[in-house]
Amino acid sequence: MVDLGFLLYFAVLLLLPLYAQFKVKRTYKKYSKVRSTSGMTGAQVARLILDQNDLKDVKVVESQGFLSDHYNPMTKIVALSSHNYHEASVAGTAIAAHEVGHAIQHKEAYTFLQWRHKLVPVANISSNASWIFVMIGIFAGMSNMLLLGIVLLAVGVVFQIVTLPVEFNASSRAMTEIVSHGVIRNEEEKHAKKVLNAAAMTYVAAAAVAVLELVRLVLMYTGMSRSE
């Protein structure tokens, strides 16, 4: 008989990220059709906020792909997906301002952003390698291999957790900038927040799934150690 708790765990593991992706796509689709009263494209919004924060050396470019918007601290480039770059929508305004929020964080040496940058190379390697040791530990019944996998996986979990304040702070900065510069007004503020909150949900879901998986493996290791 299949354990109900086991099924529930994997249901959460699968459904939470799917729900977060569905939410952000639905919210973006809705508010990408709502034209901002300022009439400014995402590219213009990004450029305005960058210039107002003395970040004239940061470029704004168009990127390919759906919601491929990002800020690259190495090249100092804010890349906006085609629709957000060219169109004047509430969604595009919010996302453009969010990415510029990361550029402002970079300029101000925001602590959590610095931590995340330092963790990127370590987290990439450890997250990929962790499952090799986890699988060896589980199938060979070697608790020491499982523990090593857990330690490596924990680095990736820390990265996911550190990412949360980085993203929430960037969204907070975004709202402050677009409101203070009159880019959005009245009801648009509420709509822009919905877009940013939906996007943040994807990071929350990723962090929650990572923590759940780590806890499951720790419990597995504890049980394995007791039986040895």
UniProtKB/TrEMBL annotation:
Keywords, in A-Z order: Membrane, Transmembrane, Transmembrane helix
Segments traversing the membrane: 6-22, 119-140, 146-166, 195-219
Instruction: Tell me the Pfam families matching this sequence.
Output: Zn_peptidase_2
Q: Does the keyword Membrane apply?
A: yes
The record's annotation in InterPro entries points to: Zn_peptidase_2
> What's the domain of life for this entry?
Bacteria
Q: What is this protein called?
A: Zinc metallopeptidase
